Amino acid sequence: MGLEQLLWDEHKISTVRKTLTDVFEGGCLRQGHLVLEGKTVALSYYRAGYTPDDYRTIEAVKGRQLIESSSTIQVPDLQMQLAGMKKIQQVLTRPEILSNFTSAETSKHLLKTFAEMHTLDEIIETPGGEMQAAEWVSVNPENYVLKPQREGGGNNYYGSEIPKILKTIRQDEQNAYILMEKILAQTHSAVLVVNGRAERLTSVSEVGRYGICFADNGVLKSNKDAGYLVRTKAENINEGGVCAGFACLNSLVLEA
Hints:
With 256 residues, the chain is α+β, with helices and mostly antiparallel strands. 26% of the residues lie in helices and 33% in strands.
């Protein structure tokens, strides 16, 4: 049963699907509330709006602005969306930034788990001395991943791909990319089922945590853990998106 049908059957909550342009053309604000098709919108869940392609027209931009200006609960709102971007991940690897959000002791432990992340114009320490990150990775790309500000899989550049893409990036575009140390995960055997076919492969897995964060006009109301997700893929696959077809969903098994 689809989520939309479940919401209606169990809670009598109706849902509609609209593009951002649809929202601009058919929506309006009434006393601060977003109204579409004569009904007040309580919650806006973004299935799109995460890439520049979603904002190609001024109508789409104004549709997003209309939602942001209303009382509707947004999943996510603009601040939360920006907080989840790779640039923020890179900034949080800096001890002086991370310490603003947690204790010095906790920061020390967290930093040990982080992969190194740099901007392309950053000066980094290398075996040959200090060097600009872009210059270093252009001749030593094997252990790095170059990431643009995109989500959903299929957007990153790995190893030998990096020097090629660096030649196409203008100087004023460099800050749109993050250079990350490649994580060398431990391999294991797994049975992956794709398109109804099962195959045992040497694989790697990634564990992610779900979180629920709710804020009202910048005031944090709730921030809690909500479970985990495991993605498993063949060891020779670089990307890891499930919906993009690169990985499979999995579960953890704890062994004594």
